[in-house]
Amino acid sequence: MADLSKPVVISAIDIALVDVTAGRRKLDPAWVETLADLFRTQGQKTPIEVIATGDRFRLVFGHHRLAAAKLIEAGTIAAIVKSPEDFASESDIMLAEITENLARRELSVLDRAVDIARWREVYEATHLLNKGGRRRKDADPEELSTKFGLSFSEAAQKAFRLSRASIFYTVKIASIGAAVRDQIALHAIADNQSELLALAAEQPARQADIAALLTSEPPQAGSVADAIAILDRSPKPRPEPKWQKLAQDFSKMKAGEQDRFFDLHEAAIQRWLNSKAQPA
After folding, report:
1. Total tally of structural domains belonging to the chain
2. pLDDT for residue 12
3. Do both 117 and 223 map to the same domain?
4. How far apart are CA 92 and CA 159, in angstroms?
5. Which run of H or of E encompasses 276?
6. CB 142: neighbour CB atoms within 10 A?
7. pLDDT tens readout for residues 152-186
8. Do residues 164 and 142 lie in contact, with contact meaning Cβ atoms separated by under 8 Å?
9. Which among 229, 176, 166 is positioned nearest to 205, based on CA atoms?
10. What does the alpha-carbon distance between residue 167 and residue 174 come to, in Å, rounded to a whole number?
11. Quick one: which of 48, 119, 125, 208 has the most CB atoms within 10 Å?
12. Quick check: is 123 in a domain?
């Protein structure tokens, strides 16, 4: 167990002296390029962790950060340097890498939308001001989304999934009121883009009412559409019958595929034909 009373010391170590053991997860090239871009513009924000082994270092975690530093041909990298005595065994070292990866909480769709919207605000504040230091009144939201997306490298666009459309959607989701966002942050809707967009389309007061129905115990609504139906006292939207979707898929099949379907369901088809042949 880590000694929390022991201060963490971050050192600049020679990248050429860091060894990476075999069996690690495959590096994501797009993420390495994205980190490299961030290292160039912002520097390294989070250190890697290594174990000092004589004159060299063994990587514990931070493989993508190490690869990014190599890509920009940096001579050193910020690292937390541990000693072999800090780990009880080889398994303890491996566990440190695994838990560091698993401990990262994946961002929900809602969290990601808020972060990207804030990121875009920073971009607009520094790039889209007129000479008087004020934001241009004629700025179009879709145009701003496009310019913001293009401000990233191709690798970053791929890693962060930052297309013009995705940025426009995330900004719309982030427009949901802060109080409502807090209320639904740990609810299933926080990771459902279509539901979040439906919620964002409603007025602030309605958003609060819908969120209350979704997060009540027990939940009074299973979706935004259900909540709207309750608020408007209208019938719940009826789910599409299974046969209807099947019929749509069947109509798109080639003749041979339809024949194969008939072969597989011959007994059911024969039963249906026999029922039709019965006198009324």
Report:
1. 3
2. 93
3. yes
4. 31
5. helix 266-277
6. 12
7. 656 656 666 667 677 778 888 999 999 999 899 88
8. yes
9. 176
10. 10
11. 48
12. yes
User: Containing domain of residue 264, as a range?
Assistant: 242-273
Q: What is the pLDDT of residues 39-90, one digit of tens each?
A: 998 899 899 999 999 899 999 989 999 999 999 999 999 999 998 888 888 8
Q: Are 88 and 113 found together in one domain?
A: no
Q: What is the value of pTM for the model shown?
A: 0.55
What is the helix (H) or strand (E) element at residue 50, kind and residue range? strand 48-53
Strands 18-19 and 56-61: parallel
Residue 184 in tokens: 């639904």
Q: What is the mean pLDDT of residues 95-108?
A: 73
Q: How far is CA 24 from the centre of its chain?
A: 23
CA 172 – CA 203 distance, rounded (Å) = 13
Together in a domain, 24 and 135:
no
**Tokens 């690869």 -> residue:** 67
Residue found under tokens 């191709």 = 154
154: helix, strand or coil: helix
- Token pair in block for residue 190: 């926080």
| Average confidence score pLDDT of the chain | 81
192 falls within a domain: yes
DSSP character string of 52-117:
EETTEEEEEE-HHHHHHHHHTT-SEEEEEEE-GGGSSSHHHHHHHHHHHHHTSPPPPHHHHHHHHH
The residue written with tokens 């001579």 in the block is 75
Q: Are residues 86 and 143 in the same domain?
A: no
Predicted local confidence at residue 8, as pLDDT:
67
Residue 258 CB neighbours (<10 A): 13
The first and second tokens of residue 226, run together, are: 């259900």
Residue 247 domain flag: yes
d(C-alpha 96, C-alpha 62), whole Å? 11
Q: 77, 109 in Cβ contact below 8 A?
A: no
Q: Report the C-alpha gap between 137 and 156 in whole angstroms.
A: 29
User: Which of the four pLDDT bands, split at 50, 70 and 90, describes residue 147?
Assistant: low
